[in-house]
Specification:
Layout: E1 2-9, E2 19-26, H1 29-42, E3 52-57
Antiparallel strand pairs: 1-2, 1-3
Length: 59
């Protein structure tokens, strides 16, 4: 089992200056990495909000 962690720091778009974390589980590393890649390519403000999509193996 793999977990995609999507971390965002969106202060340019909000009144609050704090990060946000979201997670999603995947059965394979490949599926997780593909989802992380999709976030980086398709999410329009991904770079603007200093976002990171990281896959980690669930222990």
């Amino acid at each position: 089992m793999w977990i995609l962690i999507l971390a965002m720091y969106a202060s340019p778009y909000s009144d609050n200056a704090f990060p946000s974390l979201h997670t999603q589980e995947f059965d394979t590393a490949t599926a997780c990495q593909q989802a992380a890649k999709q976030f980086a390519e398709k999410f329009e403000t991904f770079k603007d909000i200093d976002a990171r999509a990281i896959c980690v193996k669930k222990s």
